[in-house]
Amino acid sequence: MAHREEGQNLEKIFTLSEANRLLPQLEEHLAAVKRGKAVLLRTKGEVKKASSKAQFGGGSYAGPHYLMALELISEHLQEIQELGVLVKDLDTGLCDFPHMMDGRIVYLCWKLGETEVQWWHGVNSGYSGRQPLEREKES
Description:
alpha+beta, 5-stranded antiparallel beta sheet, 139 residues, 42% helix
């Protein structure tokens, strides 16, 4: 029987090969999120000015772009969540995949730019506790 840490609500447990097969999809979703974040950063000042004048019927050319970027980010993060992948850091594209190792749940750990999942960590140790996967134990 697998040991789940307190507070874990995991619907999907990934094998290493399942996690690696999802990487192209994750790269696309994370790239879209980064594009959306870039729009938010570009338009933030203009939207802030417009919102401060909202009681006077203010508006901004940037408003629709800002809203579309928020929707884009939300859609892609929801797609990732539906895959069962846990996004830990949007800026680095850090993602975790719940995985069964030695009868307990751990996280396979991957970040944008890595060619395959090569790391894992305990559910409470985070990125700083990353350890290399032993290749002979692939599952």
